[in-house]
Each structure stands twice: as structure tokens, then as C-alpha cells.
Amino acid sequence: ALSETPSVLVPEQMANAFNWTTSSKLSIVIGGGQPLPLSVAGIVAHSLPSGDNREALLMSRRQAVQLFGDSGTGFDVLEVSTDGNGGQTRAAATAATYGMRSTSVVAVRDAAHDSLSHSIALLLALAWLSVIVAMLAVVNTLVINVRQGNREMGLLRAVGLSRRSALRLVLTEAALLAALGAAVGVATGCLVALPLLRVSASPGFDPPFVLPVVAVAVSVAVVMAGAVLAALIPGRRSTGSSIVGAIRYE
After folding, report:
1. How far is Cα 218 from Cα 158, in angstroms, rounded to an integer?
2. pLDDT at 87
């Protein structure tokens, strides 16, 4: 169809945007001239990049020369072969005659996968570093809270609260504080991730939002465990001191 009639191959994204099918008729104006009637011979997953940040329409060289005259001779020639390694060898030899280099789709896909994997690994490392910094902040806050609440703890023990119950109260407060901080952090991270995903989207690449449930659960568990352990030592010291000394504490 490409060689016999004025027709083009259109990229799938453009076909979806304009509701084009293989029976659609197009009218294209080049350089302010008369509209050129073209038929859609087929729809491809991807074509070649164009100057408007979309993908180009593909047509045969013979039709390009007939429609555009001498300017059609400057169009690129694309030869596609799908017969295994032999086709790749011939494609490489053909590309070499034009001063180009042939790269298989598998090589491009693997390179993109490796690059994306490295970026994700870097983001994960930064995320865990943020978790460590957050844990240090939580530990510092809990230690200060336990020390400042030493007098209140002494008053509670004076009215009958046992040391074990007092320690349980300190650890429960630490766990609740850590859980609240983790919940706020996860919610804020999700809200920040949504616009970042929208900004990073491009033609043919629309990353969806996926909540890493396992990673979130592990992070929350680590923060809560660190908070409880951080409050354990000062809590035991606070609940183990004398009631009179705790009440007189300033």
C-alpha cells in the first residue's frame, strides 16, 4: 500500500489522539500548498522523532518524490529486517554505508532498563538515608520529652502508678509519636510523588503511581522500633528514680 498509493504509517499515540484507523483519509498541507490526500496504510507502535516533540508519519520514498518533488530525495531511507541475526548483520552493513550504526531494539531496551534501575537504586538509597535522619530526629525528641516529663512521672508514681506501668506509658507514648510521624511522612511523600510523576511523563512513558506497601511497612516498623528502643533507656532511668527526687526535678 505504501508503494502503490499515497499513504502513510502513523504512530499509535497519534492515531489514538486523532481517532485514526487503517481506513482513515488524511489531508496534509505542506509549505502552504494544496492539501495532499493520504490514506492510513497501517498503525505502528512507534516511528521516528519529529520536530514537534511527537512522532513522524512514515511513507515510501517513491511516494515522497512524487508528492514533494526534488525535496523528497532528502528523506531518510529506513530498511527493516526481522529474520534474526542475519537481518541484524545486513542492517549493520547497510547503516555503515550511510555513516551510521545499527542498534538492536533489545540493546536499547536493556540500556534503558539498566539506566532506570540505577536511578531507582539511587532514589532508594536517598530514601533510606532520609529514614535514618528521621529516626535520629525522633530519638532526640523522645529523649528530651522523657527528661522533661520526669517530674510529671514522679507525680503519677506518687499517686499509685507502678514503675512497670510508668515505663509502659513512656514506651507507648514513644510508639504513638513514631507512628504518627511515619503516617504524616508517608502521606506527604505520596502527595509529593503524584505531581512528580505527572511532570516526568512523556510520549510513550506514563509511569503509574504504585504504593510500595512492603517498603512502607518496613520503614514504619523500623522507625517505631527505633523510637521504642530510644525511649527505653531514659524511660527506665526516669521510672527507676526516687519519687521525691523526680518531683523536685527542675
Report:
1. 39
2. 63
